[in-house]
Amino acid sequence: MMPLASYAPALAQLDDNFFGDRRNAVNECPGNNGLCPGWIFDNIDQYLSPLWEHVLLSIVPLVLGFLVATTLALLAHRYKFLGTGFLAIVSALFTIPSIAFYLILLNVTGRGFATAVIVLTAYTLVLIYRNVQTGLEEVPREMVDVAEGMGLTRRQILFRVELPMALPTIFAGLRIAASSTVGIAGFAFFAGAGGLGQEIFAAPTFRGNVVAASVLMILLATVLELAVLAVQRSFTPWERAVST
C-alpha cells in the first residue's frame, strides 16, 4: 500500500471549496451519527453533476476497452502466437493498484478526464479480452468444419459462425467489466476527473454524504449491467427462443 504522502501531489491541487460544503453539512446533521435522510433528499441535486461525471467515467472506458480488447482477441484468434503476449500485457495492467495508476499518469498526461479514462480503460481490457478469447475458443470445431465445407471464407466464418456463438460469453465479460469500472471510477478524482468518489472523499465521516454517493454508485452499476444485458438479449434472440 502506498503511504498517504504519496498522494500529496494530487491532493494538494484540490480546491478548498471541494471540501467546504460537505464538511459544513456535518454540523447540520449532528444526530444519528450524521445519517440524515432529510438532508440527503434536500441536497440530492448537488450529486447530479458528479453522477453525470461518473456515468461518463464508466461508459467511455467500457466502450474503448471493448473495442481494444476485442481487436486484440480477434488478432490472437487469427494469429495464435500473439495470445500469450496479449494476455500477459492486459493482466499486468490489471494488477497495478488503481490509485497508484492514477498518480503515475498524472506526470504524463496531467490532471483531467483523459487520464482517468486511460486508467479505467486499461482495467477493462483483461476482463473483456479473456471472455472474447474464451468465447471464440469454445465454438465447436464441427461447426467451423461445416462452414468451411460450405465454402465460407475465414472472415465469413468469423462473423457468421464464431462471433455470434461467442456473444453470450463476450457479454458476460462486458457485464463484469461494467460493474468493475463503476467501482474503480470512484478513485478518478485523484486524476482530477470528479465523479461520485470525490463526493465521498470530501466528507468521509459524514454518513449521509457517504450513503448518498455510495447508493448512487450501486444504482449506476446495476443500471449499466442491466443495459448491457438488454443489448445482449437484442443481439442473441435465439437464446430467448430457446428459453421459452
Summarize this structure briefly.
By secondary structure, the chain is mainly alpha-helical.
Mind explaining what this structure looks like?
This protein has 244 residues and is mainly alpha-helical. The chain has a single domain (47-243), classed as MetI-like (MetI-like fold). It has twelve helices and no strands. The protein has helices at residues 8-11, 17-28, 37-42, 48-78, 83-95, 98-109, 113-137, 141-149, 154-184, 196-202, 207-235, 237-243. Helix 4 crosses helix 7, helix 4 packs across helix 11 and helix 9 packs antiparallel against helix 11. The longest helix is centred in the N-terminal third of the chain and has 31 residues, at 48-78. The model is unreliable at 1-6 and 13-19 (pLDDT under 50).
What's the CATH H-level homologous superfamily?
Answer: MetI-like
From the spread of the alpha carbons, the general shape counts as: elongated
> What distance lies between the first and last C-alpha atoms, to the nearest angstrom?
50 Å
Integer average pLDDT: 84
Total separate domains: 1
List the helices and strands and how they pair.
Elements: H1 8-11, H2 17-28, H3 37-42, H4 48-78, H5 83-95, H6 98-109, H7 113-137, H8 141-149, H9 154-184, H10 196-202, H11 207-235, H12 237-243
Helix pairs in contact: 2-10, 4-7, 4-9, 4-10, 4-11, 5-7, 6-7, 7-9, 8-9, 9-11, 10-11
